[in-house]
Inverse folding.
């Protein structure tokens, strides 16, 4: 593919020279100087449309990827300590994992929350927990990512309330809200409201952050969970970007010009174990997004066309057998993310097929990134595999397969990707395809065509079961319930009722943005569950038809 | 001989349904009759469905770490209905939790990476009541 500019190398050179560079020698270990990028003068360059080779001209020469380690367990106080440990160990972004009740908008004292409080992430019920979570951490100085979807608007409101009570204005807050509800119905399955009502909340958060939080990424459009649920790489690519197009259409319908919000969209992909396929997937993703944003949605700002993404290594690739081998899998996957040009990266810990990671396992996972970043020199050259006949062909193939899927979604939506995504969810089309692909992979494994070290080959050592794993006790659950009880006793009950009343009224009118009402309710210590229940009273609840 | 009937279930808030669907298809392809509850069930709804459907075995898929709380509650809810339908638990179940689950009345556990034959065989063995007889 030839780039559109008359002199691609000169254009790139100009942009590169304007970039600030890290102060390290860009050479091999033996002293051979390295160019920032390699390729023919009239070929594609990073930082230039269609961005196959990377969103920025200087890529990691200016800034390494953010080593963003996902953490959260037990109470907010426990997780706060882990956050501080991550910062001390050299992590430079926080990423919050919430527990299942919080992900589903339930309070810790809800009967359905039994056994799940603080188990898979941190339990957040009220502003008091949010304050504990970020106590002693300067939110104006570190970016914070929150993996939350159905109650994303509620947690964003609580985050804003917490930051402002700590003296940091919302405009200064940098970070990312996952807020990708479409993939919840397709893959992750932590849904609460029906799809269309959920999309109204997405619209509200996008409009609110576009207007008031210029440093905030409103949606992290996520393929990670789609892949973990069993899709192929091409399905991950296509479903994710398809969802991205749906959000673009949603915001445009709400009257936002595309260049007002698209620069704040970011992506989140899986890094699975098939090394080159993953790299091709990231390259294809950037190219497709740029072209669709420009040609179909009329974006003119470069930032609207530049796909930026976070990567997490594949949880499903980890094995409970010989768990130390997971360090090696994770290192290979992380390297694929880096060679694919990721903007941030989470590396899984070796014990995560068994439990949440111990502090030691989480530190080793971070060390894996640091070895790649500081010892291997792979970050010196942008898109180091670009130009490889193999990688270019695989990139084209991923793109072609994704385009076939977009055509199907567009057809389901009669010319609207937004309608296509919602229809596909309502008709179980996405869910069915993912389940089919997952089963096909399982059958290949059972036929012995797919080898997993320590699981169906090379079993010596499986009997050793020596890893210490993190134990979350029921004590945390009891502690969190007590904490919630205390907050409820101490808050001003009539202020809570007033705030929830207003939230219900605002929810009835689809033209009203719900963020102000949610922030007010957060400030008077309304719980996540109370706000979600209030909205469910207006929106209803989604029930998935069970299919095998 | 009539086909073995199995209820595969997701209990609690855990939305990870890849495993349960793969196992459901494996069991179906092995000739069992499979009923899937769908997500977000409680111990009570699972027990009621198992008794109503007159299944031979219940398969619980648990990946959120809540198995130590919820799996025993499912067993109790089944027994409270005067039923001895065995309960098999699969998913992210660390080895050190298995003994306690068996003591709580779970018939068998399947950990991460259990091969297809083991899954099918364990469910069939449980359905025939063989784990129970061994325990007695």
């Amino acid at each position: 593919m030839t780039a559109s500019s008359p002199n691609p190398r000169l254009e790139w050179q100009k942009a590169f020279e304007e970039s600030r560079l890290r102060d390290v020698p860009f050479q091999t270990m033996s002293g051979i100087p390295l160019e920032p990028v390699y390729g023919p003068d009239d070929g594609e360059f990073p930082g230039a449309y269609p961005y196959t080779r990377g969103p920025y001209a200087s890529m990691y020469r200016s800034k390494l990827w953010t080593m963003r380690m996902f953490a959260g367990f037990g109470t907010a106080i426990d997780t706060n300590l882990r956050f501080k440990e991550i910062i001390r160990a050299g992590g430079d972004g926080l990423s919050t994992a919430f527990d299942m009740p919080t992900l589903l908008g339930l309070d810790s004292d809800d009967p359905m929350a039994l056994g799940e409080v603080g188990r898979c992430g941190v339990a957040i019920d009220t502003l008091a927990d949010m304050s504990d979570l970020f106590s002693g951490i300067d939110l104006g100085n570190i970016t914070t990512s929150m993996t939350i979807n159905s109650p994303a608007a509620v947690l964003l409101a609580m985050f804003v309330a917490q930051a402002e009570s700590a003296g940091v204005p919302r405009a200064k807050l940098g970070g990312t809200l996952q807020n990708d509800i479409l993939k919840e119905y397709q893959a992750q399955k932590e849904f609460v409201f029906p799809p269309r009502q959920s999309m109204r909340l997405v619209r509200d958060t996008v409009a609110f952050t576009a207007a008031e939080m210029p440093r905030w990424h409103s949606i992290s459009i996520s393929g990670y969970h789609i892949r973990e649920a069993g899709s192929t790489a091409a399905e991950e690519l296509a479903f994710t970007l398809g969802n991205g197009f749906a959000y673009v259409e949603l915001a445009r319908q709400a009257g936002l010009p595309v260049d007002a919000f698209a620069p704040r969209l970011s992506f989140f992909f899986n890094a699975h174990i098939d090394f080159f396929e993953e790299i091709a997937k990231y390259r294809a993703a950037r190219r497709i997004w740029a072209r669709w944003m420009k040609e179909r949605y009329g974006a003119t700002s470069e930032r609207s066309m530049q796909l930026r993404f976070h990567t997490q290594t594949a949880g499903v690739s980890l094995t409970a057998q010989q768990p130390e081998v997971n360090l090696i899998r994770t290192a290979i996957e992380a390297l694929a993310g880096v060679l694919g040009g990721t903007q941030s990266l989470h590396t899984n810990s070796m014990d995560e097929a068994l439990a949440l990671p111990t502090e030691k396992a989480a530190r080793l996972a971070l060390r894996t990134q640091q070895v790649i970043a500081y010892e291997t020199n792979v970050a010196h050259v942008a898109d180091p595999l670009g130009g490889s006949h193999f990688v270019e062909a695989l990139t084209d193939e991923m793109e072609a397969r994704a385009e076939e899927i977009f055509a199907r979604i567009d057809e389901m939506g009669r010319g609207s990707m937004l309608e296509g995504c919602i229809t596909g969810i309502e008709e179980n089309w996405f869910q069915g395809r993912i389940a089919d692909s997952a089963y096909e992979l399982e059958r290949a494994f059972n036929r012995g065509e797919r080898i997993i070290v320590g699981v169906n080959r090379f079993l010596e050592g499986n009997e050793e079961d020596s890893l210490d794993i993190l134990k979350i006790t029921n004590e945390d659950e009891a502690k969190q319930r007590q904490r919630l009880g205390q907050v409820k006793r101490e808050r001003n009950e009539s202020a809570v009722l007033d705030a929830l009343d207003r939230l219900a009224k605002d929810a009835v009118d689809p033209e009203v943005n719900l963020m102000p009402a949610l922030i007010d309710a957060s400030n008077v210590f309304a719980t996540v569950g109370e706000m979600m229940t209030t909205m469910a009273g207006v929106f209803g609840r989604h029930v998935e038809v069970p299919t095998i | 001989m009539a086909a073995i009937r199995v209820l595969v279930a997701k209990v609690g808030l855990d939305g990870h349904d890849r495993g349960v669907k793969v196992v459901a298809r494996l069991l179906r392809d092995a000739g069992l009759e499979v009923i899937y509850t769908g997500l977000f069930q409680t111990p009570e709804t699972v027990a009621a469905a198992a008794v109503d459907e007159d299944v031979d075995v219940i398969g619980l898929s648990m990946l959120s770490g809540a198995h130590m709380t919820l799996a025993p509650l499912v067993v109790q809810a089944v027994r409270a209905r005067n039923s001895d339908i065995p309960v098999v638990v699969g998913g992210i179940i660390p080895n050190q939790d298995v003994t306690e689950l068996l003591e709580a009345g779970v018939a068998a556990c399947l950990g991460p990476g259990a091969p297809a034959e083991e899954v099918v065989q364990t469910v069939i063995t449980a359905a025939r009541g063989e784990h129970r007889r061994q325990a007695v």
Summary: The domain at 5-135 of chain B is CATH 3.40.50.280 (Rossmann fold). Chain B has one domain: 5-135. Chain B touches chain A through 35 residues (CB under 8 Å). The mean pLDDT of chain B is 92.
